[in-house]
Amino acid sequence: MGGNQSTDQFLDKPLIPQQRFVGNMSQRFVRPREVTLELEDEFWSKKHDHEIEIKDLTSDQVLFRLAPTDQANSAKVMLLDGFKVPVVRMESRPIGPRGAGYSVYPGGPSASTRFCEMKTEMTPFEKPMRIDFVDRVTGAQVRLGITGKWLRRTSMIWIESGQWDARYSIARVYRKPDTPEGKFLMDVASGVDIALMVLIAGAMDEQSKKHEIGKDKKDKKAAKEAAKASKKASKAAAA
């Protein structure tokens, strides 16, 4: 009951339509209405031998596809449109022990013009994700970021402009009680590039997966050391 109430309160927070969103790579995936996407858990980070579809739940239209991936190309992932035409490529590289940088290249596999750089940091003292832009019209610094708990799929993506010193919610990630197992939803405000929001979800998905793997390894190591200490103590007591 409490969990549902919390989700309802989260969903009650409105997304703010954008008239001139600086993060639009093109107008192709910018809609005049709010869009709800359905995505798979680990859709970006998991090696998959099948094509992954990303749908607009309102129209049931397949907006994007992710081709099957292999380990050799895991650092370079191409997002395709519903007709399997390349839309944008995202390349990742590690930054420190818990961070990563993601370069975004709109276009086909050989596109070389970088649109933006995304940074993620899975530490308690850093913002989990940020993208910095310069508004070409006003010259103001603009930042995109995330608040909430991504691992629980309860997060809000916001835009903040240095010109107005204001923060606006432009997308949210969540699950409903009837959301299919292994999937989550993303609402995207009108006027916002849906493709860029999918890339943000992909970067967060990949980094959260690495964070979970690292935590599992750390927990196993701690358990192993505790078992050794217990065994050593038992031997000492027996002696």
Automatic annotation (TrEMBL):
Name the domain of life this protein comes from: Eukaryota
**Where does the record place Basic residues bias?**
229-239
| Region (Disordered) location | 207-239
Among Gene3D superfamilies, the record links this protein to:
LURP1-related (2.40.160.200)
Q: Where is the composition biased (Basic and acidic residues)?
A: 207-228
The entry's family comment says: Belongs to the LOR family.
The molecule here is called: Uncharacterized protein
